[in-house]
Amino acid sequence: MEEKNKRETFSTGFAVFFATLGSAVGLGNIWKFPYLIGTNGGGAFLLVYLLCVVLVGIPIMSCEFYIGRKSRKNAVGAFKKLNASKGWKTIGFMGVASAFLIAFFYSSVAGWVYSYVFKAIKGDFAGVTLVTANTKFMSTLVGPLSPIVWQFIVLCVVSIILIAGVKNGIERITKTLMPVLFILILICDVRALTLPGASQGLKFLFHVDFTQLTGPVILAALGLAFFKLSLGMGTMLTYGSYFTQSNNMIATSAKVALSDSLISILAGIAIFPAVFSFGLTPSEGPGLLFKTIPLVFSKIPFGSVLLVAFFFLTAIAATTAMISMIEVPVAYFTEEKGIGRKNAVLLTTSIMMVVGILATLSAHPTSVLGNIHILGQRGFFDSFDFISSNILLPIGGLLIAIYVGYFVKKEDFKLELSNQGTLNNDLVLNIIYIFIKFISPCLLIIVFFNSIGIIKL
Ligand code: PHE
Protein backbone atom coordinates (compact mmCIF):
# COMPACT_ATOMS: atom_id res chain seq x y z
CA MET A 1 0.00 0.00 0.00
CA GLU A 2 1.76 3.16 1.17
CA GLU A 3 5.37 3.78 0.22
CA LYS A 4 6.65 4.60 3.66
CA ASN A 5 9.78 6.41 2.65
CA LYS A 6 7.96 9.01 0.62
CA ARG A 7 5.67 9.80 3.55
CA GLU A 8 2.63 10.42 1.39
CA THR A 9 -0.44 11.94 2.94
CA PHE A 10 -4.07 11.33 2.09
CA SER A 11 -5.25 13.96 -0.32
CA THR A 12 -8.34 15.37 1.35
CA GLY A 13 -10.33 15.16 4.58
CA PHE A 14 -12.83 13.08 2.68
CA ALA A 15 -10.12 10.57 1.73
CA VAL A 16 -8.90 10.45 5.33
CA PHE A 17 -12.39 9.63 6.56
CA PHE A 18 -13.00 6.87 4.03
CA ALA A 19 -9.57 5.31 4.35
CA THR A 20 -9.92 5.15 8.12
CA LEU A 21 -13.45 3.84 7.88
CA GLY A 22 -12.16 1.26 5.39
CA SER A 23 -9.92 -0.10 8.12
CA ALA A 24 -12.64 -0.05 10.77
CA VAL A 25 -15.43 -1.58 8.70
CA GLY A 26 -14.93 -5.25 8.00
CA LEU A 27 -15.87 -8.65 9.29
CA GLY A 28 -16.05 -7.05 12.71
CA ASN A 29 -19.33 -5.32 11.82
CA ILE A 30 -20.95 -7.92 9.67
CA TRP A 31 -19.75 -11.18 11.20
CA LYS A 32 -18.31 -10.67 14.69
CA PHE A 33 -20.58 -7.97 16.08
CA PRO A 34 -23.87 -9.86 15.48
CA TYR A 35 -22.47 -13.18 16.63
CA LEU A 36 -21.05 -11.75 19.85
CA ILE A 37 -24.31 -9.93 20.59
CA GLY A 38 -26.00 -13.29 20.08
CA THR A 39 -23.72 -15.29 22.34
CA ASN A 40 -23.55 -12.58 25.02
CA GLY A 41 -27.26 -12.10 25.53
CA GLY A 42 -28.33 -9.12 23.37
CA GLY A 43 -29.13 -5.52 24.34
CA ALA A 44 -27.05 -5.24 27.51
CA PHE A 45 -23.92 -6.24 25.57
CA LEU A 46 -24.79 -3.66 22.88
CA LEU A 47 -25.12 -0.96 25.51
CA VAL A 48 -21.75 -1.75 27.10
CA TYR A 49 -20.18 -1.95 23.65
CA LEU A 50 -21.43 1.53 22.74
CA LEU A 51 -20.20 2.91 26.07
CA CYS A 52 -16.76 1.42 25.35
CA VAL A 53 -16.72 3.05 21.91
CA VAL A 54 -17.47 6.49 23.35
CA LEU A 55 -15.59 6.39 26.65
CA VAL A 56 -12.52 4.47 25.51
CA GLY A 57 -12.56 4.11 21.70
CA ILE A 58 -12.78 7.75 20.61
CA PRO A 59 -10.14 8.99 23.12
CA ILE A 60 -7.69 6.23 22.22
CA MET A 61 -8.21 6.72 18.51
CA SER A 62 -7.38 10.40 19.00
CA CYS A 63 -4.18 9.36 20.83
CA GLU A 64 -3.15 7.06 17.99
CA PHE A 65 -3.79 9.79 15.42
CA TYR A 66 -1.78 12.20 17.56
CA ILE A 67 1.25 9.88 17.80
CA GLY A 68 1.04 8.97 14.12
CA ARG A 69 0.73 12.43 12.63
CA LYS A 70 3.20 14.01 15.03
CA SER A 71 5.88 11.40 14.28
CA ARG A 72 4.92 10.47 10.72
CA LYS A 73 6.31 7.00 11.42
CA ASN A 74 5.28 3.35 11.81
CA ALA A 75 4.05 1.88 15.09
CA VAL A 76 7.53 1.01 16.40
CA GLY A 77 9.51 3.91 14.93
CA ALA A 78 6.99 6.52 16.11
CA PHE A 79 7.99 6.28 19.75
CA LYS A 80 11.66 6.66 18.90
CA LYS A 81 10.91 9.70 16.76
CA LEU A 82 8.98 11.32 19.63
CA ASN A 83 11.96 10.73 21.94
CA ALA A 84 10.00 8.40 24.17
CA SER A 85 12.16 6.16 26.33
CA LYS A 86 12.98 2.77 24.87
CA GLY A 87 10.28 0.76 26.66
CA TRP A 88 7.43 2.46 24.79
CA LYS A 89 8.42 0.63 21.63
CA THR A 90 6.79 -2.38 23.29
CA ILE A 91 3.46 -0.93 22.18
CA GLY A 92 4.62 -1.25 18.59
CA PHE A 93 5.88 -4.81 19.08
CA MET A 94 2.62 -5.82 20.71
CA GLY A 95 0.86 -4.28 17.72
CA VAL A 96 2.92 -6.41 15.34
CA ALA A 97 2.06 -9.51 17.40
CA SER A 98 -1.65 -8.60 17.45
CA ALA A 99 -1.67 -8.12 13.68
CA PHE A 100 -0.42 -11.69 13.26
CA LEU A 101 -2.83 -13.20 15.77
CA ILE A 102 -5.82 -11.42 14.24
CA ALA A 103 -4.80 -12.24 10.69
CA PHE A 104 -4.56 -15.97 11.53
CA PHE A 105 -8.30 -16.25 12.07
CA TYR A 106 -9.46 -13.21 10.10
CA SER A 107 -8.05 -14.64 6.88
CA SER A 108 -9.89 -17.84 7.62
CA VAL A 109 -13.26 -16.11 8.01
CA ALA A 110 -12.55 -13.94 4.98
CA GLY A 111 -12.02 -17.23 3.14
CA TRP A 112 -15.52 -18.38 4.08
CA VAL A 113 -16.87 -15.08 2.73
CA TYR A 114 -14.95 -15.44 -0.56
CA SER A 115 -16.27 -18.98 -0.92
CA TYR A 116 -19.82 -17.72 -0.31
CA VAL A 117 -19.42 -15.25 -3.21
CA PHE A 118 -18.49 -18.19 -5.40
CA LYS A 119 -21.32 -20.38 -4.08
CA ALA A 120 -23.84 -17.55 -4.53
CA ILE A 121 -22.71 -17.05 -8.13
CA LYS A 122 -23.13 -20.78 -8.79
CA GLY A 123 -26.69 -20.51 -7.44
CA ASP A 124 -26.03 -22.87 -4.53
CA PHE A 125 -28.48 -21.01 -2.34
CA ALA A 126 -31.51 -21.37 -4.61
CA GLY A 127 -34.45 -22.60 -2.51
CA VAL A 128 -32.34 -22.46 0.65
CA THR A 129 -33.96 -23.70 3.88
CA LEU A 130 -32.79 -23.72 7.46
CA VAL A 131 -31.44 -27.24 6.99
CA THR A 132 -29.57 -26.56 3.75
CA ALA A 133 -28.23 -23.23 5.10
CA ASN A 134 -26.77 -25.21 7.95
CA THR A 135 -25.20 -27.92 5.80
CA LYS A 136 -23.73 -25.33 3.41
CA PHE A 137 -22.08 -23.51 6.27
CA MET A 138 -20.75 -26.67 7.90
CA SER A 139 -19.17 -27.90 4.69
CA THR A 140 -17.59 -24.46 4.14
CA LEU A 141 -16.20 -24.45 7.62
CA VAL A 142 -15.09 -27.99 8.28
CA GLY A 143 -13.52 -28.71 4.90
CA PRO A 144 -10.74 -29.64 5.57
CA LEU A 145 -9.11 -28.73 2.27
CA SER A 146 -11.44 -26.11 0.81
CA PRO A 147 -11.30 -23.57 3.69
CA ILE A 148 -7.49 -23.71 3.52
CA VAL A 149 -7.56 -23.10 -0.21
CA TRP A 150 -9.90 -20.10 0.24
CA GLN A 151 -7.71 -18.73 3.01
CA PHE A 152 -4.76 -19.03 0.66
CA ILE A 153 -6.67 -17.13 -2.04
CA VAL A 154 -7.51 -14.35 0.43
CA LEU A 155 -3.87 -13.98 1.48
CA CYS A 156 -2.75 -13.97 -2.16
CA VAL A 157 -5.19 -11.17 -3.00
CA VAL A 158 -4.07 -9.17 0.02
CA SER A 159 -0.38 -9.73 -0.83
CA ILE A 160 -0.85 -8.62 -4.43
CA ILE A 161 -2.58 -5.42 -3.34
CA LEU A 162 0.03 -4.73 -0.67
CA ILE A 163 2.93 -5.35 -3.03
CA ALA A 164 1.43 -3.36 -5.88
CA GLY A 165 1.19 -0.41 -3.52
CA VAL A 166 -2.07 0.77 -4.99
CA LYS A 167 -3.14 2.92 -2.07
CA ASN A 168 -5.04 5.21 -4.38
CA GLY A 169 -6.80 2.28 -5.95
CA ILE A 170 -7.89 1.01 -2.57
CA GLU A 171 -9.04 4.45 -1.56
CA ARG A 172 -11.15 4.70 -4.66
CA ILE A 173 -12.63 1.22 -4.21
CA THR A 174 -13.59 1.91 -0.60
CA LYS A 175 -15.03 5.29 -1.40
CA THR A 176 -17.40 3.94 -4.02
CA LEU A 177 -18.19 0.50 -2.67
CA MET A 178 -18.73 1.30 0.98
CA PRO A 179 -21.90 3.30 0.28
CA VAL A 180 -23.16 0.40 -1.85
CA LEU A 181 -22.58 -2.03 1.01
CA PHE A 182 -24.46 0.37 3.25
CA ILE A 183 -27.45 0.38 0.87
CA LEU A 184 -27.46 -3.42 0.63
CA ILE A 185 -27.50 -3.71 4.41
CA LEU A 186 -30.44 -1.28 4.45
CA ILE A 187 -32.32 -3.46 1.93
CA CYS A 188 -31.70 -6.45 4.20
CA ASP A 189 -32.94 -4.42 7.13
CA VAL A 190 -36.21 -3.55 5.43
CA ARG A 191 -36.81 -7.19 4.47
CA ALA A 192 -35.78 -8.53 7.85
CA LEU A 193 -38.05 -6.07 9.65
CA THR A 194 -41.05 -7.19 7.64
CA LEU A 195 -40.52 -10.91 8.32
CA PRO A 196 -43.06 -12.56 10.61
CA GLY A 197 -41.83 -12.44 14.20
CA ALA A 198 -39.32 -9.65 13.47
CA SER A 199 -40.15 -7.80 16.68
CA GLN A 200 -38.66 -10.60 18.76
CA GLY A 201 -35.31 -10.01 17.06
CA LEU A 202 -35.46 -6.30 17.71
CA LYS A 203 -36.33 -6.96 21.32
CA PHE A 204 -33.30 -9.24 21.64
CA LEU A 205 -31.03 -6.60 20.11
CA PHE A 206 -32.28 -3.57 22.00
CA HIS A 207 -33.76 -4.80 25.27
CA VAL A 208 -31.25 -4.26 28.06
CA ASP A 209 -31.26 -7.01 30.62
CA PHE A 210 -28.63 -6.08 33.20
CA THR A 211 -28.53 -9.59 34.66
CA GLN A 212 -26.63 -10.60 31.51
CA LEU A 213 -23.65 -8.44 32.42
CA THR A 214 -20.84 -10.54 33.85
CA GLY A 215 -17.11 -9.78 33.88
CA PRO A 216 -16.33 -11.84 30.76
CA VAL A 217 -19.27 -10.27 28.89
CA ILE A 218 -18.02 -6.75 29.65
CA LEU A 219 -14.48 -7.74 28.63
CA ALA A 220 -15.83 -9.17 25.37
CA ALA A 221 -17.65 -5.87 24.64
CA LEU A 222 -14.48 -3.92 25.32
CA GLY A 223 -12.40 -6.27 23.17
CA LEU A 224 -14.92 -5.93 20.36
CA ALA A 225 -14.73 -2.13 20.54
CA PHE A 226 -10.94 -2.30 20.07
CA PHE A 227 -11.15 -4.89 17.32
CA LYS A 228 -13.90 -3.00 15.52
CA LEU A 229 -12.15 0.34 15.55
CA SER A 230 -8.75 -1.25 14.71
CA LEU A 231 -7.35 0.20 17.95
CA GLY A 232 -4.57 -0.66 20.35
CA MET A 233 -2.17 -2.14 17.78
CA GLY A 234 -0.89 0.78 15.77
CA THR A 235 -3.17 0.58 12.73
CA MET A 236 -4.76 3.92 13.43
CA LEU A 237 -1.36 5.27 14.44
CA THR A 238 0.01 4.29 11.03
CA TYR A 239 -3.02 5.85 9.31
CA GLY A 240 -2.56 9.00 11.39
CA SER A 241 0.94 9.25 9.99
CA TYR A 242 -0.60 9.81 6.54
CA PHE A 243 -3.15 12.43 7.63
CA THR A 244 -3.12 15.92 6.22
CA GLN A 245 -1.87 18.66 8.52
CA SER A 246 -5.28 20.33 8.36
CA ASN A 247 -7.34 17.30 9.43
CA ASN A 248 -9.44 17.76 12.55
CA MET A 249 -8.40 14.47 14.10
CA ILE A 250 -10.79 14.48 17.05
CA ALA A 251 -13.71 15.05 14.69
CA THR A 252 -12.39 12.24 12.47
CA SER A 253 -12.21 9.87 15.46
CA ALA A 254 -15.78 10.65 16.45
CA LYS A 255 -17.12 10.38 12.89
CA VAL A 256 -15.37 7.07 12.23
CA ALA A 257 -16.45 5.56 15.56
CA LEU A 258 -20.06 6.59 15.11
CA SER A 259 -20.37 5.57 11.45
CA ASP A 260 -18.77 2.25 12.24
CA SER A 261 -21.18 1.61 15.11
CA LEU A 262 -24.11 2.57 12.90
CA ILE A 263 -23.06 0.00 10.29
CA SER A 264 -22.76 -2.66 12.99
CA ILE A 265 -26.20 -1.90 14.39
CA LEU A 266 -27.72 -1.99 10.91
CA ALA A 267 -26.11 -5.39 10.37
CA GLY A 268 -27.67 -6.50 13.67
CA ILE A 269 -31.08 -5.26 12.50
CA ALA A 270 -30.69 -7.33 9.33
CA ILE A 271 -29.73 -10.47 11.21
CA PHE A 272 -31.68 -10.80 14.47
CA PRO A 273 -35.24 -10.57 13.15
CA ALA A 274 -34.24 -13.26 10.65
CA VAL A 275 -32.75 -15.40 13.40
CA PHE A 276 -36.07 -15.53 15.23
CA SER A 277 -38.23 -15.66 12.14
CA PHE A 278 -36.38 -18.65 10.64
CA GLY A 279 -36.07 -20.49 13.93
CA LEU A 280 -32.31 -20.19 14.52
CA THR A 281 -30.89 -19.51 17.96
CA PRO A 282 -29.16 -16.18 18.60
CA SER A 283 -26.28 -17.93 20.34
CA GLU A 284 -25.49 -19.85 17.14
CA GLY A 285 -21.90 -18.53 17.14
CA PRO A 286 -19.68 -17.79 14.12
CA GLY A 287 -22.20 -19.26 11.66
CA LEU A 288 -24.88 -16.67 12.39
CA LEU A 289 -24.17 -14.41 9.40
CA PHE A 290 -23.61 -17.28 6.99
CA LYS A 291 -26.89 -18.95 7.83
CA THR A 292 -29.24 -15.98 8.16
CA ILE A 293 -28.21 -13.82 5.19
CA PRO A 294 -28.91 -16.44 2.44
CA LEU A 295 -32.29 -17.05 4.11
CA VAL A 296 -33.17 -13.33 4.17
CA PHE A 297 -32.19 -12.84 0.53
CA SER A 298 -34.20 -15.89 -0.51
CA LYS A 299 -37.26 -13.79 0.42
CA ILE A 300 -36.33 -10.72 -1.65
CA PRO A 301 -37.06 -10.17 -5.36
CA PHE A 302 -33.78 -10.59 -7.30
CA GLY A 303 -32.44 -11.98 -4.03
CA SER A 304 -29.96 -14.29 -5.72
CA VAL A 305 -28.24 -11.38 -7.46
CA LEU A 306 -28.30 -9.24 -4.33
CA LEU A 307 -26.85 -12.13 -2.34
CA VAL A 308 -23.82 -12.24 -4.64
CA ALA A 309 -23.46 -8.48 -4.25
CA PHE A 310 -23.75 -8.69 -0.46
CA PHE A 311 -21.01 -11.28 -0.02
CA PHE A 312 -18.86 -9.62 -2.67
CA LEU A 313 -18.96 -6.30 -0.83
CA THR A 314 -18.38 -8.02 2.49
CA ALA A 315 -15.33 -9.67 0.92
CA ILE A 316 -14.06 -6.25 -0.16
CA ALA A 317 -14.66 -4.78 3.30
CA ALA A 318 -12.77 -7.72 4.85
CA THR A 319 -9.92 -7.32 2.37
CA THR A 320 -9.43 -3.58 2.97
CA ALA A 321 -9.54 -4.12 6.75
CA MET A 322 -6.89 -6.84 6.41
CA ILE A 323 -4.68 -4.60 4.35
CA SER A 324 -4.62 -2.00 7.14
CA MET A 325 -3.94 -4.75 9.69
CA ILE A 326 -1.05 -6.33 7.77
CA GLU A 327 0.43 -2.90 7.02
CA VAL A 328 1.51 -2.75 10.69
CA PRO A 329 4.09 -5.60 10.48
CA VAL A 330 4.98 -4.74 6.89
CA ALA A 331 5.77 -1.14 7.85
CA TYR A 332 7.79 -2.41 10.78
CA PHE A 333 9.84 -4.85 8.67
CA THR A 334 10.50 -2.32 5.92
CA GLU A 335 11.23 0.77 8.01
CA GLU A 336 12.92 -0.75 11.02
CA LYS A 337 14.51 -3.90 9.64
CA GLY A 338 15.38 -2.66 6.17
CA ILE A 339 13.62 -5.52 4.38
CA GLY A 340 12.30 -4.61 0.92
CA ARG A 341 8.55 -4.09 0.73
CA LYS A 342 7.88 -7.12 -1.47
CA ASN A 343 9.84 -9.46 0.77
CA ALA A 344 8.29 -7.97 3.88
CA VAL A 345 4.81 -8.65 2.48
CA LEU A 346 5.68 -12.19 1.41
CA LEU A 347 7.31 -12.98 4.74
CA THR A 348 4.35 -11.66 6.70
CA THR A 349 1.61 -13.30 4.67
CA SER A 350 3.50 -16.61 4.47
CA ILE A 351 3.65 -16.82 8.26
CA MET A 352 -0.03 -15.90 8.37
CA MET A 353 -0.83 -18.66 5.92
CA VAL A 354 1.11 -21.38 7.72
CA VAL A 355 -0.06 -20.60 11.24
CA GLY A 356 -3.48 -19.52 9.96
CA ILE A 357 -4.12 -23.14 8.96
CA LEU A 358 -4.30 -23.94 12.68
CA ALA A 359 -7.16 -21.46 13.00
CA THR A 360 -8.94 -22.77 9.94
CA LEU A 361 -8.72 -26.37 11.10
CA SER A 362 -10.05 -25.55 14.57
CA ALA A 363 -13.00 -23.29 13.73
CA HIS A 364 -15.60 -25.86 14.81
CA PRO A 365 -15.57 -28.69 17.37
CA THR A 366 -15.89 -31.20 14.52
CA SER A 367 -13.00 -29.68 12.53
CA VAL A 368 -9.79 -31.69 12.15
CA LEU A 369 -8.09 -29.90 15.05
CA GLY A 370 -11.35 -28.94 16.73
CA ASN A 371 -10.74 -30.92 19.90
CA ILE A 372 -7.32 -29.49 20.75
CA HIS A 373 -7.62 -26.96 23.56
CA ILE A 374 -4.86 -24.60 24.62
CA LEU A 375 -4.53 -24.65 28.42
CA GLY A 376 -7.66 -26.77 28.45
CA GLN A 377 -9.78 -23.78 27.47
CA ARG A 378 -10.08 -22.66 23.86
CA GLY A 379 -9.08 -24.07 20.50
CA PHE A 380 -6.57 -22.28 18.25
CA PHE A 381 -9.19 -20.22 16.41
CA ASP A 382 -10.78 -18.89 19.60
CA SER A 383 -7.44 -18.46 21.36
CA PHE A 384 -6.03 -16.27 18.58
CA ASP A 385 -9.18 -14.17 18.80
CA PHE A 386 -9.32 -14.01 22.59
CA ILE A 387 -5.63 -13.21 23.14
CA SER A 388 -5.62 -10.45 20.53
CA SER A 389 -9.01 -8.76 20.99
CA ASN A 390 -9.56 -9.23 24.69
CA ILE A 391 -5.99 -8.99 25.98
CA LEU A 392 -3.39 -7.46 23.66
CA LEU A 393 -5.50 -4.70 22.08
CA PRO A 394 -6.91 -3.35 25.37
CA ILE A 395 -3.44 -3.48 26.98
CA GLY A 396 -2.02 -1.71 23.91
CA GLY A 397 -4.76 0.89 24.27
CA LEU A 398 -4.06 1.31 27.98
CA LEU A 399 -0.35 1.87 27.33
CA ILE A 400 -1.12 4.36 24.54
CA ALA A 401 -3.42 6.34 26.86
CA ILE A 402 -0.82 6.30 29.65
CA TYR A 403 1.90 7.43 27.26
CA VAL A 404 -0.11 10.34 25.90
CA GLY A 405 -1.70 11.21 29.25
CA TYR A 406 1.42 11.12 31.38
CA PHE A 407 4.50 11.26 29.16
CA VAL A 408 3.51 13.84 26.57
CA LYS A 409 3.25 17.53 27.41
CA LYS A 410 -0.38 18.61 27.49
CA GLU A 411 0.50 21.70 25.40
CA ASP A 412 2.10 19.52 22.73
CA PHE A 413 -0.95 17.32 22.57
CA LYS A 414 -3.28 20.30 22.36
CA LEU A 415 -1.19 22.05 19.73
CA GLU A 416 -1.19 19.01 17.44
CA LEU A 417 -4.88 18.23 17.88
CA SER A 418 -5.93 21.84 17.42
CA ASN A 419 -3.75 22.12 14.30
CA GLN A 420 -1.51 24.69 16.02
CA GLY A 421 -4.47 26.46 17.54
CA THR A 422 -6.32 27.06 14.31
CA LEU A 423 -9.29 24.84 15.17
CA ASN A 424 -10.48 26.68 18.28
CA ASN A 425 -11.48 23.41 19.91
CA ASP A 426 -10.10 24.06 23.37
CA LEU A 427 -13.12 22.79 25.26
CA VAL A 428 -13.28 19.52 23.32
CA LEU A 429 -9.54 19.05 23.82
CA ASN A 430 -9.77 19.58 27.56
CA ILE A 431 -12.60 17.05 27.78
CA ILE A 432 -10.84 14.44 25.66
CA TYR A 433 -7.68 14.95 27.69
CA ILE A 434 -9.53 14.12 30.92
CA PHE A 435 -10.74 10.94 29.26
CA ILE A 436 -7.25 10.01 28.11
CA LYS A 437 -5.62 10.73 31.43
CA PHE A 438 -8.21 9.38 33.86
CA ILE A 439 -11.41 7.88 32.55
CA SER A 440 -10.25 5.54 29.76
CA PRO A 441 -7.29 4.04 31.69
CA CYS A 442 -9.38 3.56 34.84
CA LEU A 443 -12.15 1.83 32.90
CA LEU A 444 -9.64 -0.41 31.16
CA ILE A 445 -8.03 -1.41 34.43
CA ILE A 446 -11.38 -2.05 36.13
CA VAL A 447 -12.64 -4.22 33.27
CA PHE A 448 -9.45 -6.26 33.36
CA PHE A 449 -9.36 -6.83 37.07
CA ASN A 450 -13.04 -7.60 37.02
CA SER A 451 -12.69 -10.17 34.26
CA ILE A 452 -9.88 -12.02 36.01
CA GLY A 453 -11.81 -11.89 39.27
CA ILE A 454 -9.49 -9.58 41.25
CA ILE A 455 -12.34 -7.13 41.81
CA LYS A 456 -16.05 -7.84 41.66
CA LEU A 457 -18.39 -5.34 40.02
N1 PHE B 1 -11.66 -3.31 12.36
C1 PHE B 1 -11.62 -4.45 11.51
C2 PHE B 1 -13.01 -5.07 11.42
O1 PHE B 1 -13.91 -4.68 12.07
C3 PHE B 1 -10.61 -5.47 11.97
C4 PHE B 1 -9.25 -4.92 12.23
C5 PHE B 1 -8.69 -5.05 13.48
C6 PHE B 1 -8.55 -4.25 11.21
C7 PHE B 1 -7.43 -4.54 13.74
C8 PHE B 1 -7.28 -3.74 11.47
C9 PHE B 1 -6.72 -3.89 12.73
O2 PHE B 1 -13.21 -6.00 10.72
UniProtKB/TrEMBL annotation:
Presence of the UniProt keyword rRNA-binding in the record: no
Lineage top rank: taxon: Bacteria
Keyword Membrane applies: yes
NCBIfam families for this protein: Na_transp
Membrane topology reported for the UniProt record: Multi-pass membrane protein
Keywords, sorted A to Z: Membrane, Symport, Transmembrane, Transmembrane helix, Transport
Family: Belongs to the sodium:neurotransmitter symporter (SNF) (TC 2.A.22) family.
Organism: Clostridium tagluense
Any one GO CC term of the record: membrane
Membrane spanning residue stretches: 12-31, 43-67, 88-114, 148-166, 178-198, 218-240, 261-280, 300-323, 344-366, 386-406, 427-455
PROSITE patterns in UniProt: NA_NEUROTRAN_SYMP_1 (PS00610), NA_NEUROTRAN_SYMP_3 (PS50267)
InterPro entries the UniProt entry points to: Na/ntran_symport (IPR000175), SNS_sf (IPR037272), YocR/YhdH-like (IPR047218)
A GO molecular-function descriptor: symporter activity
Subcellular location: Membrane
Name by which UniProt lists this protein: Transporter
